[in-house]
Every structure is written in C-alpha cells, then in structure tokens.
Design goal:
InterPro entries: A2-macroglobuin_RAP, Alpha_2_MRAP_C, MG_RAP_rcpt_1, RAP_D2, RAP_D3, RAP_sf
Protein name: Alpha-2-macroglobulin receptor-associated protein
Subcellular location: Cell surface; Endoplasmic reticulum-Golgi intermediate compartment lumen; Endosome lumen; Golgi apparatus lumen
Shape: globular
Oligomer: single chain
Main location: other
GO molecular function: heparin binding; lipase binding; low-density lipoprotein particle receptor binding; receptor antagonist activity; very-low-density lipoprotein particle receptor binding
Structural class: mainly alpha
Length: 354
C-alpha cells in the first residue's frame, strides 16, 4: 500500500505537530532517496528530461558540450533505453532476482559505452562520427584504423560508386568504427571487473555463479569480435567490388542482424518471419535518417537566421526546429528499442543452438 499523504485534510485543516509525528511513526519507514523507491527523488525529479538524476546530469553535460543536434537526438534515445532498463532492473532486484549481479554489471557496461560514444567520459578522442551523409567535414575525424582508411580511399577513388552509394558505404564504415569502439569499452570494463575480483578474493573463493557470469561476458566479447571480423571482411569485399544490385538490405545494422539470423537456430518459417520484420525495421531506420538530415538542415538554417534574421523569422525557425527535434528523438527511441528487441531475439536463437 502506498504511503498516505499527511496534512492534506478537507479544506486545508492541519493536524497538530505531535499528531503528525505519531502518524508518521505509524505509517512506517519511507523509501530512502536515491534507492529507486516509488516516491524517491530519483523517480520524481520535476522538470528534468529524464526521471533519473544521473541521466539528467549526463544530458545537461552533453548540451554544455554543444554536441551536434543529430548526436544529441541519438544520445537522448540511448539514455531513454538506459533509463528503461535501469528501472526494469530495480524491479527485478526488489523481487530478489539478479542475485549474481550480472544484470547490474551489464547496465554499468552499457552506460560506459554511452559515455565513450558521445565523449562524456572526459576523453578527447572518444566521440564517434555519427554523420548520415557526406557533407562538408564529415571525414575530418578519420576512421581510427589505417586498414579502414586505406579501404575507404580505394573505394572513393575507384569510380565504382555513385554519390548515394558512397554515402551508404560511409555509414557502413562508421557503423564498423562504432562496433570496434563498443568492443574496446566492454573489454576494458571486463578487465577492470576481473582485476577487482582478483584483488578482493582468492581464486578458490570464486563461486560457480561468478565463474558463469565471467564466462557469459567473455562469450559476449567473442560474439562482438566475430561480428567485427565479419564486418571488416564485408567492407573489404564491397570496397573492391562495389555493391551488389540484388543485396537483401542496405542499412548496416539490418545487414548485421540478417547475417546473425542466418547463422542462428531459426526454423525456415521463423527466418522468413524475421526477414519480413527486418524489412519493416529498415523502413523505420530510413525514416529516422530522413528526420536526422532535416534536423541538421534546420539547425544550420536557424543559426543563420539568428545571425541575420528578424525576430519573426527566428521565432518561426525555432518552432520548426523544436518540432523536428522532438520527432527525431521519438523515432530515435523507437529505432533503438526495436534494434534491442531484434538483437535479443537473435542472441537467444544463437545461444539455444550451443
């Protein structure tokens, strides 16, 4: 039963202070702030973008850093997913589940990936390039890998790609770069966790459950490393040969999911159903990409109008930008959530066959 509000009687009548104290004692202890209770400050922080204060702080930091609008919308979607998962975990923990702490550890790893991806971890070289087109300056940060740089230069100068195909290939290169970054963050997090455990307890004290947890994390890393290797092989093939006109999908994330699904333990009927869902997912991604591009254009136009336009023009452009920003955030969250759901399905099917 939820705690009753005290001192809210009819017509504002107030109980004497002594009675208030007695009522508080009778009602029992209130949930401690910061522990995710139903009435805690963390869940009911007014006026913030998120219900969790730590995520609000990250969001505010990203805005202070003046991340580009497309990156901000991507970050917003990632933080929304993180918030949803953290509240789900708190419910599990309250029910006595997650005894080995693996779900909590995964949440921490996911947050570390977000911090590294958007440069919120204090490292100057941490931010990824998330551009959706080959606009001016989109290549200035490079790909961070000489092999990728060589492949990209070869593809760009080969004459085998149209402008749209180069745009598409650049997204694939950036997607690969992001996968490598996420792998490195997970590897570093796992190494720190194992080091802490080794210093805290002797090897013979490690429980069977803890050993299984570490095994699961290593399996996750191996899966990601296998995906990176397959992705590089694909980039090398496409860079040399060009795109196949009969390719099943175009979006990098969808291509990855389809490759994983074909090697998973799906029946023929399940695989066909998954293929159809991936087609719908690709349309959703394309729609999101469209809004991201429109948001970037709107942002550039707004900056120009703010410098040279009158109050009415500024006001109209701000309204348009705000509408595009909210729509992009909404679609970004739906894409990330759908991606998470599809990835979980493939992962379960792959592990079922082991």
């Amino acid at each position: 039963m939820a705690p009753r509000r005290v001192g809210a009687g009819p017509r504002g009548l107030r109980a004497p202070p002594v009675l208030l104290l007695l009522l508080l004692l009778l009602l029992g202890p209130w949930p401690a702030a910061g522990h995710g209770g139903k009435y805690s400050r963390e869940k009911n922080e007014p006026g913030g973008e998120f219900r969790m204060e730590k995520l609000n702080q990250l969001w505010e930091k990203a805005q202070r850093l003046q991340l580009p609008p497309v990156e901000l919308s991507e970050l917003h979607a990632d933080l929304k997913i993180q918030e949803r998962d953290e509240f789900s975990w708190k419910k599990l923990k309250a029910e006595g589940l997650d005894e080995d702490g693996e779900k909590e550890a995964k949440l921490i790893r996911n947050l570390n990936v977000i911090l590294a991806k958007y440069g919120l971890d204090g490292r100057k070289d941490a931010r990824a390039v998330n551009g959706n087109s080959l606009g001016d300056g989109v290549e200035q940060d490079g790909l961070g890998d000489p092999r990728l740089e060589k492949l990209w230069h070869k593809a760009k100068t080969s004459g085998k790609f149209s402008r749209d195909e180069l745009d598409k290939l650049w997204r694939e290169f950036q997607h690969h770069k992001e996968k490598v970054r996420e792998y490195n963050v997970l590897l570093e997090t796992l190494s720190r966790t194992e080091e802490i455990q080794e210093n805290a307890i002797s090897p013979e004290d490690v429980s069977h459950v803890q050993a299984e947890v570490l095994g699961t994390r290593h399996a996750e890393l191996q899966d990601r490393l296998r995906g990176i290797s397959q992705g590089f092989d694909r980039l090398r093939k496409v860079s040399h040969q060009g795109y196949d006109g009969d390719a099943e999908f175009e979006e990098p994330r969808v291509i990855d999911l389809w490759d994983l699904a074909r090697s998973a333990n799906f029946t023929e009927k399940e695989l066909e159903s998954f293929r159809e869902e991936l087609k719908h997912f690709e349309v959703k991604i394309e729609k999101h990409n469209h809004y991201q591009k429109q948001l970037e254009i709107s942002h550039q136009k707004l900056k120009h109008v703010e410098r040279f336009g009158d109050h009415e023009h500024v006001s109209r452009n701000k309204e348009r930008y705000a509408v595009l920003e909210e729509k992009t955030k909404e679609l970004g969250y739906k894409v990330k959530k759908h991606l998470q759901d599809l990835s979980s399905r493939v992962s379960r099917a792959r592990h079922n066959e082991l």
